[in-house]
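Please check this today:
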Amino acid sequence: MCTEAVGQRGPGSPDWLTGRRALAHPERMGSPLSPPFPVYGLADSFTGPRWFKVWNWWRGSERGRLWHVGLGHGDPNAGHVIVHTDAKHWWQARHRGGRPRSNVTDAARAALLHMNDLAFPPDPDGRRSAGFLDEDHRAAELAYHLAPPEWTPQTIAVENQPVLFWTRTVNDAWAAVADVGPVAVGAAGSEIPLDEHGLRTVNDRLDDYRA
């Protein structure tokens, strides 16, 4: 089982998911046994390994309330897909730095950061390319603006129903973001196309991710 938990910035509000930066100081926490919102993963046509990637809890006045779950699909060291489900709490709609946030901003940034890791793997010495640094610096801005030419609309099946996603591709990796009713979904991957399997709620099979 692969798990990571990301710390929060301050009382009463969750920090933005920082992807690989969270790996430097992971905070181990109990796994989310019963998320109070629909959690998405690849549909049943995907038969590869499934694992927990990350989850986040609120602190402050809402301490202990789960707001984000990220699930892995495939080989963590090769082609795989991470699906982030974000509960879209009221905090996310607040203005930040003078700019309005959408309900999918955090999910989009999470997807972009994981896409960049896959698109620009480190060299044998652990160094990243200039392309990685450029995409990394742009991630926050791209998460605010889901529109052409940086993003492309694509219809992907969610519970066997067509849903509009905004997608972005860099090298051999991709990111996809959508507002799915009560939650936002941000996915990233390589070698496994999202539209090949689509998504479904996996609350009923979370034990498959704990193996």
User: Anything to note?
Assistant: The radius of gyration is 16 Å. The CA atoms of residues 173 and 190 lie 5 Å apart. Residues 19-209 form one domain.
